[in-house]
Fold Acyl-CoA desaturase.
Amino acid sequence: MAVQPSMSSQPPPPRTSTSKPSITSEPITLSNWYQHINWISTTLVIIVPIYGLFAIQYTPIHRLTLAWSLIYYFLTGFGITGGYHRLWSHRCYSARLPLRIFLAFVGAGAVQGSIRFWSSKHRAHHRWTDTHKDPYNALRGFFFSHLGWMIFKQDSRMIGRTDISDLDEDPVVVWQHKHFLETMLMAAWIFPMCVAGLLWGDWWGGLVYAGIMRACFVQQATFCVNSLAHYIGDQVFDDRRTPRDHWITALVTLGEGYHNFHHEFPSDYRNAISWHQYDPTKWFIYLLSKTTLASNLKRFRHNEIEKGRLQQQQKAVDIARSKLDWGTPLADLPVISWEEFQAEVEGGAALTSIAGVIHDVSAFVEEHPGGRALIKSALGKDATAVFNGGVYMHSNAAHNLLSTMRIGVLRGGQEVESWKLEASAKSKADGLMGDLRQRMTVTKDEAGAAEAA
């Protein structure tokens, strides 16, 4: 089932009156369905594999051909994951010319387009993830992100633009793009067929198993990065977009399954950062760095990676916390004076004051682990010291339970503050009375002077 595109994505740019309308703007009908099909892509990812499935019914498999098919599967798979993806799309490391030529050749054998084509689409996917400018937008449904974006034509004017000037400066990329058809035919079908044919005489088996079916499996594995990696797994570092981490996707895609990490830290040559996570592409790149073929392996700062992990964990904690009863927030409680508090208790309410907050413990008197007498002795009093170690140092659970019993905040904070207020008021009253008495007292000298007058 397709998911509606994100509401936050910007609307597509308006067409100019001179631009020719794309077939994609028209609904698919019985009369025009064939015009909506991208026949080149459909032939390479659907029709040829279907022919391969038909051919294997009449093609016995040689065990050396099977072994060669598995070996070439991993080589061409690495051409995509370690070459097209981590080297050229994200520049996660640097590769010398012999390695770049090898990766360009085996990458072409995966039958997924040229380096230039593949990388430009992938960079657009990262820049415009989950929007209408994303060429394989996961919000348009699993089928679209897996196969639909290749089978059906897309209006190229709607796909987000990216900078690929660095690719145009790489002679290997330029040559492979210019001669991709010949390179693909050689790397995908002719070369694996010749290996099996020349070495152990299995020409047709080499073409069917090491060529056609091997390419089909590499294609479907790679496509899972666009589809499966956006649907199953955990969002360990960010949940604002669809990419997810899952070991199953990693197994299928030669280590590309830790996709949430990858979208957050795309320039890191690793997809998996823990020792136990499956990422053969990372291991192969690391081994190559121990030779002269690969260098400048990029790793994102561990501190920033852990920040992202911790922030996502905090989000999960906040969501879980919001589902629990933590009592009425202090800011929402009424302010009650000590006198009002005392009056409520004298009226029969089971109230106690702890840390400046008045709690109604009436429903807990019978359940109090310390007995009714102890909790009743705190009614109408400031029980802060009693609760916090004066009689018993209550547990964290007791504090949490107490928070659900709040009914008000004591004006002045605690009972001692009320005493201060009373003492202050009494002191002021005594001062006023003393001053008044002093003013009303007549000295002997003043009395004598009055009589003389």
The radius of gyration is 38 Å. Residues 1-11, 416-420, 439-453 have pLDDT under 50 and may be disordered. Residues 32-314 form one domain. The chain has two domains: 32-314, 330-416.
